[in-house]
Specification:
- The protein folds into two domains: 4-126, Immunoglobulins (Immunoglobulin-like), CATH 2.60.40.10; 150-447, Glycosidases (TIM Barrel).
- It is globular, with a radius of gyration of 21 Å.
- It is 25% helix and 24% strand.
- The strands form four sheets. The chain has an eight-stranded parallel barrel, surrounded by four helices. Strands 4-11-10-6-8 form a five-stranded mixed sheet, with no helix packed on it. It has a four-stranded antiparallel sheet with strand order 3-5-9-7.
- Helix 9 (397-406) links the parallel strand 18 and strand 19.
- Helix 8 (370-384) packs parallel to helix 9 (397-406).
- The chain contains ten helices and 19 strands.
- InterPro entries: GH, Glyco_hydro2_dom5, Glyco_hydro_53, Ig-like_fold, Invasin/intimin_cell_adhesion.
- Its EC number is 3.2.1.89.
- Belongs to the glycosyl hydrolase 53 family.
């Protein structure tokens, strides 16, 4: 997750944000049911256009909205009718079908309307090509047996919040380490993101270096001391990596592909080995963040599936050479997009990329309805016989956990909520006191046997 989704016009509101920065206009939301299509002149992408009020509730309005499109694609239909550049919403929504052209590239689709916040999305058009396996040897991952269920949280913002002086209090008003507080409320796993050089001028934390290796290592010690496990989320960037941006670290720019691949291996092995040497090996590692459009662009972009597979394999080898028992996740931002999730996983398996867990991001505005999430998780588990979990979410907490712990059957692992200390529906108020939202999790843990 990136803190700001520029292309959708949607912003995650931090705990300390001013209400004056929040628009009062209704917002157009574009939910794509696939964001990768084949550039053969026939493939299509289905988009849902909807309208939300300032609280995020659906609006059953009939506004006129206008469409604009750049890239090699065309509008094939609007609500099943002939293509047009404008249409009326019907009870607050309509459906658009885009059809691919023949060129690789990025299609940008934007929807605007009078007195409405615009919405947009990106569709990547690609030629998949014939797959070439990354190895002829036996798989080095993919056979893990994971016995514990997971209620986890990404709280990578914690060192920044504490640096501002924020303290945390349980429901009884007693101060404490937030990790211990969360553990007492049913959480047993923490996710940490790490950047290469976040202190760079264009990095995640210019001049300060939050989420670098040093702070990640210190957090890993706190996590283990609190009796929890941790997932290491390697962004392979100095800045946020997500489906809209997967930029190389500045130190890696200009490297030829062979050197880039070696760098991925050495960097990953070095990170995991250093954590293991201090007694805190990551229990799970995700190779990249929300990588359904690839990583380390342009070399590892989704238009270069063989190169993407090789880079992923280099990272996986690095993990396994440093910590053989650590499990491997591939994290894709496709909670409700089954067709695209299958496309990605099929292409990685065809290239013999080994992994243990399929991690999904699920934010309703981008990834569909809870029913879409449930259908996707059920299908992925049954189709691939892999562990499946929600690696990021925020809203619909009980609903998402119920789906994640049941839909994949015996392959269900659980969830990681994204940054619940200070964004969206926070577990703690402005004074640091625990809110009722934290109370949701102990019953979930007991219901699904999370320890």
């Amino acid at each position: 997750m990136c803190l700001q989704r520029l292309l959708t016009g949607a912003v995650l509101v931090p705990l300390f944000a001013s209400a004056q920065n929040r628009s009062t206009l209704p917002e157009i939301v574009v939910t794509p049911y696939t964001t990768t299509i084949v550039a053969g002149g026939k493939d299509t992408a289905l988009l849902k256009i909807s309208l939300l009020d300032r609280q995020g509730a659906p609006l059953a309005a009939n506004n006129v909205v206008r469409f604009s499109l750049t890239g090699d694609a065309q509008i094939r239909s609007v609500d099943g009718q002939r293509p047009d550049t404008a249409a009326h919403l019907m009870n607050g929504q309509l459906w658009v079908v885009l059809q691919a052209g023949t060129a690789n590239g990025i299609v940008r689709f934007k929807v605007t309307g009078d007195s409405l916040q615009p919405g947009s999305t990106e569709i990547h058009t690609i030629h998949p090509g014939r797959p070439h396996p990354v190895t002829d040897g036996p798989p080095i991952a993919g056979n893990a047996i994971i016995r514990e269920k997971i209620i986890g949280a990404d709280i990578s913002f914690l060192p920044q919040l504490e640096a501002r002086g924020m303290k945390f209090y349980d429901k009884d008003g007693q101060p404490g380490d937030v990790l211990q507080i969360m553990h007492a409320h049913g959480f047993n796993y923490i996710r940490l993101r790490v950047f290469d050089h976040p202190e760079q001028p264009k990095g995640y934390s210019p001049g300060k270096g939050f989420c670098d290796y040093g702070r990640t290592a210190a957090m890993a010690q706190r996590i283990k001391a609190a009796g929890m496990k941790f997932l290491l989320d390697i962004h392979y960037s100095d800045y946020w990596a997500d489906p809209q941006q997967q930029n190389k670290p500045a130190a890696w720019s200009g490297l030829d592909f062979a050197t880039l691949k070696d760098s991925v291996y050495a960097y990953t092995k070095g990170l995991v080995a250093a954590l293991a040497q201090q007694g805190t090996p990551p229990d799970m590692v995700q190779i990249g963040n929300e990588i359904n459009h690839g990583l380390l662009w342009p070399d590892g972009g989704i238009t270069n599936l063989d190169s993407l597979a090789q880079l992923l394999y280099a990272g996986i080898r690095g993990v396994k050479d440093a910590s053989p028992s650590t499990t491997i996740m591939l994290h894709i931002a496709l909670g409700g997009q089954n067709r695209e999730a299958r496309f990605f996983i099929d292409n990685m398996l065809a290239r013999k990329v080994p992994f243990d867990v399929i991690g999904l991001s699920y934010y309703p505005r981008w990834h569909g309805t809870p029913d879409d999430l449930q259908a996707n998780m059920t299908d992925l588990a049954h189709r691939y016989h892999k562990y499946v979990m929600v690696a990021e979410y925020s809203q619909l907490k009980t609903v998402v956990n119920d789906i994640a712990f049941t839909a994949p059957g015996k392959y269900a692992l659980g969830t990681f909520i994204w940054e619940p200390l200070s964004t969206w529906e926070s577990f703690f108020d402005r004074s640091g006191k625990a809110t009722l939202l934290l109370d949701l999790y102990l019953p979930i843990a007991k219901k699904y046997g999370v320890r």
